[in-house]
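Repro:
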Amino acid sequence: MMDDNILLAFGLTLFAGLSTGIGSGIALVARRTNTKFLSVSLGFSAGVMIYVSFVEILTKSRTVLVADMGEVSGSWLTVAAFFGGILLIGLIDKFIPNVENPHEIKRVEDMNQKDKAKRLKRLGLFTALAIAIHNFPEGLATFTAALNDPGLGIAIAVAIAIHNIPEGIAVSVPIFFATGSRKKAFWLSFSSGLAEPVGALVGYLILMPFMSPIMFGVLFAMVAGIMVFISLDELLPAAEEYGEHHLSIYGLIAGMAVMAVSLLLFV
């Protein structure tokens, strides 16, 4: 049963990571970006991740840590690990220059704007690298959640997959314009998502031998922190920049509602 969960967790992480290829496909095939759809989708993804982080993941972390360490120590460690996760992903984000940050908005129609090919190619390559760095902890988050609760893992994988679509666009647009090759643009974008299953694999190989209730509780709280930061720092700003303010909020509320109902169905 555990082996089945491990395979499912890896499969979900791979799906979430390689969805950058969907964004690449949109960028290389569509004439214009459907900004309203992306705005609602990104808001929806943020709603899923915020709701599940606070209601499910952080609650499970505290329950495990309190049971093992006592009410006071367990509660303090839960909070410390949660903000530790935020600090980790915040530091990763801090050390990536803004011009090469994968969360800088790109649209399909940007392909028609002329610029120096060398600069664009460099931008695309560094964006792919930045995405790989960002996706590493996301892969660990998806894997950890799926390993503990496959249903929860599916919800998080879908949310992160939606989140990765604009990143695929961010890589494809400059690479295509710089090289003129749709094939190169697609494969570089597609490959940048491999960091998520790599993050899951490294997490499995390094952490699983030492897994204990305390380790699991700390890791789960950190996952919650990582997902909240991603939602507030990346998803919601991107959703608003792609579309109207209210569309992103409607998507956010819809994501929370769908996640809430899905969790209640498994009570």
